[in-house]
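Dear colleagues,

For the upcoming journal club I promised to circulate an example of a predicted protein-ligand complex. I picked one with DQA because it came up in last month's discussion. The inputs are reproduced below in full, followed by the predicted structure.
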Amino acid sequence: MNILLINGPNLNLLGTREKELYGSKSLEDIQQDLLVLANEHQCNLLTFQSNAEHEIIDSIHGAVEAKIDFVIINPAAYTHTSIAIRDAFLGVKIPFYEVHLSDIQTREKYRHFSYLSDIAEEVITGLGAKGYEEAMLKGILKYRSK
Ligand code: DQA
């Protein structure tokens, strides 16, 4: 199975950025742990982070040719603004899990709305880095047999 992990803007700063909200693990550490987990389940994990909306869209488009079975994405602030990322997922028809480290529903009002949640396979928020692991395990269970 092929899994693509996409992290959006400012998530390259994890580990130093607003630790009380996002935890003290760096993105590299998170990705490393997920690579181990993917390996344990005989899956390939591709990882991608960008601060640019168009690069995230291009990586979603590229998932078709890369034969990605499902995507795990933390779209960060683009969650609340990007119709273009929504359209990219609708265009490629690849299932995706939306992950947020913090609980966006209990934060500022402008973070409550997501352009992706209603078309996501599932939304996992507020579990910190564990949320990515949960998304991966759910995706493996669901798409393994398909
Ligand atoms: C985030 C929540 C977003 O509102 C915020 O813009 C982020 C990170 C999270 O993981 O909790 O950058 O997606």
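Two points we might discuss: The mean pLDDT is 97. The two ends are 10 Å apart (CA to CA).

See you all on Thursday,
B. R.
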